[in-house]
Recover the amino acids of this structure.
């Protein structure tokens, strides 16, 4: 059986040779030209997305990419010059992004099978072609060093929003070309070409649209490991990049920019020494601007809840790196986690309650050794007992959708579990609450609080 397969494979290769290199080039060019996204399908400012048109385009692109994948396996493909390969494959690489409306996970997967067949020179060939799409950044000199003052003053970044070629319909997927290029450059080639990489990265990071800011941060995340921190400091771009990231965090965008805090911490940790004053200042700035201000200025309603839940996630991330250092902001943290829990626990707000309680429990455990949680036991017990009573009395809302009701029970069970865990944690940190507050609750209403208190291993209370 193995002999038959070998002969068949050899026969395929001989048959492939019957196609000339020129014909292979023509065939691939004919296919990849069809991958150009029509201008009417490229999302623009205040434009409605054509879902039907995008669906047709995605199906067509999948079929084309399957054919392209077969073509690049031809023996003659490796003989095609890198410049020609780039010309043929530019549209393919522009599609290499799973979040773009004209792309998909399936398309991205096929492209990953095509990429290993491309010349290693293509990333270097791409970079000069990107320059016309991105304006010069006012905080960078012509040699891509950070300026002490932005060209045009502190508001000069606003001028970047006047002309943005990378957002034109003809520029669809141009960010994917930048991403591909930086991802496949060696550290040596990266440092040689940083003047072509840093400006577009910063232009994206300082864009007025949050989605582009996140794309810029994600590109930074790709290449920051390829550059020496000493070079970043000599160029002065370490502070420039970190300030931009922290400013983006402070915007509290909705929908939240997932992964942004991770990227920011990664850059801070690369550019500062452990336990240094500078690192501490950056961490403090993240909490002040991203969380304290975020709690203050979060919008109301569903939009605000999404923002607040993201703040909880970021706070948990900051606890991982700061530990008990968050105690400095405890007077802001605990009230802001407790305050929303006073309202009726409808199905729409239960995910928010779940997030707040999970974060509160994490705060309590992080500060266990400080002994500071005991000062907040009154507020914690007051709010959580009220919430527990409302959950016990609640048996569903008649005006909720079926889909909401399906998910509500699991979330409500988790909320109850989190309340029990917080009560247990509080009793471990402040043993006196077992004899005082918990006993008072049992005396007040054994039926209401019995199962809550019994979840805590306290024989004294039940006696």
């Amino acid at each position: 059986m193995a002999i038959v397969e070998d002969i068949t494979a050899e026969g395929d290769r001989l048959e492939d040779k019957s196609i000339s290199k020129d014909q292979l080039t023509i065939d691939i060019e004919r296919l990849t030209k069809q991958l150009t996204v029509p201008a009417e399908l490229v999302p623009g400012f205040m434009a409605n997305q054509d879902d039907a048109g995008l669906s047709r385009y995605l199906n067509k692109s999948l079929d084309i990419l399957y054919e392209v994948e077969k073509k690049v396996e031809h023996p003659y493909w490796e003989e095609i010059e890198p410049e020609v390969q780039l010309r043929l494959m530019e549209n393919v690489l522009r599609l290499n992004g799973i979040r773009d409306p004209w792309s998909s996970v399936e398309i991205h997967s096929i492209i990953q099978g095509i990429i290993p067949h491309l010349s290693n020179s293509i990333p270097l060939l791409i970079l000069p072609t990107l320059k016309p799409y991105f304006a010069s950044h006012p905080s960078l000199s012509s040699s891509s060093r950070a300026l002490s003052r932005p060209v045009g003053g502190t508001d000069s970044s606003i001028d970047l929003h006047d002309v943005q070629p990378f957002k034109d319909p003809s520029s669809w997927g141009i960010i994917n070309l930048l991403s591909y290029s930086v991802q496949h450059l060696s550290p040596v080639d990266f440092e040689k070409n940083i003047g072509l990489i840093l400006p577009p990265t910063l232009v994206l990071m300082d864009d007025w649209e949050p989605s582009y800011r996140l794309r810029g941060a994600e590109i930074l995340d790709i290449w920051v490991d390829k550059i020496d921190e000493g070079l970043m400091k000599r160029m002065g771009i370490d502070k420039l990049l970190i300030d931009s990231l922290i400013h983006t965090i402070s915007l509290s965008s909705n929908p939240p920019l997932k992964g942004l805090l991770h990227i920011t911490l990664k850059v801070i940790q690369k550019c500062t020494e452990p336990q240094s004053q500078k690192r501490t200042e950056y961490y403090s700035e993240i909490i002040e601007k991203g969380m304290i201000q975020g709690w203050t200025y979060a919008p109301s309603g569903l939009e605000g809840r999404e923002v607040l839940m993201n703040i909880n996630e970021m706070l948990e991330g900051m606890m991982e790196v700061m530990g008990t250092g968050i105690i400095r902001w405890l007077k802001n943290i605990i009230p802001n986690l407790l305050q929303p829990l006073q309202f009726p626990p409808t199905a729409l707000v239960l995910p928010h309650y779940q997030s707040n309680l999970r974060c509160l429990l994490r705060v309590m455990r992080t500060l266990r050794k400080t002994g500071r949680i005991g000062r907040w036991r009154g507020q914690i017990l007051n709010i959580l007992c009220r919430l527990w009573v409302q959950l016990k009395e609640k048996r569903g809302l008649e005006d909720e959708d079926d889909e909401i009701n399906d998910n509500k029970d699991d979330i409500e069970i988790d909320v109850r579990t989190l309340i029990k865990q917080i009560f247990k944690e509080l009793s471990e940190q402040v043993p006196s609450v077992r004899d005082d507050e918990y006993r008072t609750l049992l005396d007040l209403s054994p039926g209401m609080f019995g199962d809550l208190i019994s979840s805590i291993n306290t024989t004294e209370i039940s006696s």
